[in-house]
Amino acid sequence: MNKRKLVVTLIYVSLAVAVFLTAFESNAVGAMVGESAPLFTLKDLDGNEVSLSSFKGKPVLLNFWATWCYFCKKERKELDALYKAYNDKDLVIIAVALDKSKKVVENFMKVHPADYIVLTDTKMTSAAMYGVRGYPNTFLIDREGVIKYKIPGYRKWSSNISMSIIDKLIK
To answer: What average pLDDT does the segment 76-90 reach?
Structure first.
């Protein structure tokens, strides 16, 4: 019986390690730091098409999120403050909502409006291009369209470290 428990335990540990390594592996598929940012065109909440390529020459913070995600909601306030602090310095903030329904995003934004660009991607094609596996997930793209940073998870954008990274990006 002890031998059987040991084998079962080893199997579970092996599976847990495999899941852990898969979840935190480098982006084998999708956009990588140092590469050109994949270009996409999506619609904003008014139905206007917005292309990432139209912001070439400007630094871009590209944030993937969902309305149901706790840390995404928490990060909205941080992005609002960042927008106010850096809007006059050419920083473009684009938040791509990955909810399955545009209506859900519209309703969320009525309660939690944003001054920065909010796009919807109900098919998650842009997320796939960037290899997004969790939310929130942020990419910082320089003026030449090259990904300089990939930041998975919630970020306190008002922190000194975050603002230092943004300052380097906008130079």
So the answer is: 94
